[in-house]
Amino acid sequence: TFQTNVLTELKKWKLSLIEHHKLQMRQEKEKHAAHVRQLGNEMENLKELLHTYEISIGRKDEVVITNLTQALERQKERIELMRKFTLWRIQHVKAKQEEYANRIADRQFQTALMKKVWAAWRSLSEEKWKEKVAKACQLRAEDVCVQLTNDYEAKIAELTATLEQTKAEILRLHGEREQYEDTMKKAFMRGVCALNLEAMTMFQGK
Length: 206
Hints:
This is Centrosomal protein POC5. Keywords: Cell cycle, Coiled coil, Cytoplasm, Cytoskeleton, Repeat. Helix content is 99%, strand content 0%. By secondary structure, it is mostly helical. The model has no long low-confidence stretch (mean pLDDT 81).
């Protein structure tokens, strides 16, 4: 009858509508799964990039600290060598002074045998001159030591300032890395929120 045909068509239309709805749901699920896979791949790529960045910063920190440590060690070795050289030079000057004093004493002794009065006067004069020479040499050696000490202290201060600047640069790089990680987290959260909003909109529309 007509009513039966109408009911049959309605059932067919209902089944067709249900199948169409199932097909749309399946397509949306596939799109959603593809989007989730894409986001997962992007997250893995970002994790690899972040890991590479951390390794690069760690290597840079190690290289900078190693170079500064080696520079300080070399500077200490130079200072120690200069100190030893200065001590040797002072001892060498003293030895020269002693040798010269011995030669003067021998000459004075020989002169004294020839003429006592002349030897006494010459001995007194040369003794005063020796004292002046020794004092002048000692003052000069002290001035050299003071100058070397000032130069080494200035160099150490310069290296210390360089080390502090490098530490500040390392802290700045760590801050940039933390800011980069925070930005990546925020970007990921925005993507997840956008995905949730899209899913809610789709289900509400349905």
